[in-house]
Amino acid sequence: MHKSGYYYSMHQSAHHLGISRLQIGSVTLAGRAILAPMSGVTDVVMRRIARRFGASLVVSEMVASDDYVRGDDESRIRAEGAGIDTHVVQIAGCDPYWMGEAARMAEQCGAAIIDINMGCPAKRVTGGYAGSALMREPDLALRLIEATVAATTVPVTLKTRLGWDDTSLNAPELTRSAQDAGVSLITIHGRTRCQFYKGRADWAAIKATRHAVRVPLVANGDCNSTDDASAMIAASGADAVMIGRAAVGRPWLVGEIAAHLDGLAYDAPSAQARRDAALEHYEGLLDLLGPSTGLRHARKHLAAYAAHARPAGPTTDASDRLRLVTSDNPSEVRRLLASFFDDLPEAEAA
């Protein structure tokens, strides 16, 4: 399949069927399923692959605004968007100056959309009054949003949670202020910060934000399948869904869900196409980060690709699974990864 073939044909089919398009400021999406930003996970290689398999939009890993502007190498790599047609950079911080400068810099480097992170629950982020900690500081949150919007000519979006805890579910108020400040799209993760990733995301609780804002709304949290996506839309009233951890090891899932939500057929990738994507991801990380760092970074992805290709069961491949994520030999890792896709039915769904 040509690299742009799937989502081009999907867009054409959707247009023919009269399917409405999601609008983010001046940017029009060809579907309603987005790959979530995940620190240490959604590297540029994974994002390219997900986009090629039909993801409507992909978002960079979270970038600390001050580090990014100061030229930190890790931040630069996280914000990389080479080969992605609609590049989204997610920034985080607690100082309006750095947020504005980071947004300006990201746009200059090719970002088509700037996303503001007010949802990360990690203590290293919230301890500095960034991420979801800003739900407890609505005045500061608004100043950060205003500075970001004022600094750039591209659309600005916001990702946040239901609230800090169950006693302060203030997402509707925060997002209404964000909309009034010029934010073009809102994403709500259906948990509070204090939940982290425990329990189940409360999709119905997102509906309070649906009633509060007019801009497009995206529901996030525990979307693992096409059935989940339909249920999320129904419960939350959102316009689109965002898929996170479920896409690790199967980045094509986002495209499958995008097609499902628009009532379109999805040509599930063959075992060979999935193997080639897994190998592409591995090789791309070695090129991006260098052989040593790239191999270590790849291990979470390698384990997930193997698990989805051939779920654990027979003890005969247990040693191969262990070796896949412990070997320091790139050639051996390449051979082991490919072996998990051997002898799989070509028509097997993702």
User: What is the spatial order of strands in the main beta sheet?
Assistant: 3-4-5-6-7-8-9-10
**What is the alpha-carbon Rg in Å?**
20 Å
Range of helix content? 40-55%
What number of domains?
Answer: 2
CATH topology of the largest domain: TIM Barrel
Task: Provide the CATH superfamily of the largest domain.
Answer: Aldolase class I
Order of helices and strands: HEEEHEHHEHEHHEHEHEHEHHHHH
Number of helices: 15
The top-level CATH class of the largest domain is Alpha Beta
Instruction: Please tally the β strands and state the result.
Output: 10
Structural class: alpha/beta
What share of residues are in beta strands?
5-15%
**Assigned CATH architecture of the largest domain:** Alpha-Beta Barrel
Low-confidence stretches: 1-16
Structure, explained:
The chain has 350 residues and is an alpha/beta fold. 44% of the residues lie in helices and 14% in strands. It has an eight-stranded parallel β-barrel with strand order 3-4-5-6-7-8-9-10, surrounded by six helices. The longest helix has 19 residues. The protein starts with a helix and ends in an 11-residue tail after the last helix. The N terminus is likely disordered.
Write the layout of secondary structure elements.
Blueprint: H1 5-17, E1 22-24, E2 27-29, E3 33-35, H2 44-52, E4 57-64, H3 65-69, H4 73-78, E5 87-92, H5 96-108, E6 113-118, H6 123-126, H7 138-151, E7 156-161, H8 171-180, E8 185-189, H9 207-212, E9 217-220, H10 226-236, E10 240-243, H11 253-261, H12 271-289, H13 291-309, H14 318-324, H15 330-339
Parallel strand pairs: 3-4, 3-10, 4-5, 5-6, 6-7, 7-8, 8-9, 9-10
Antiparallel strand pairs: 1-2
Helix pairs in contact: 5-7, 12-13, 14-15
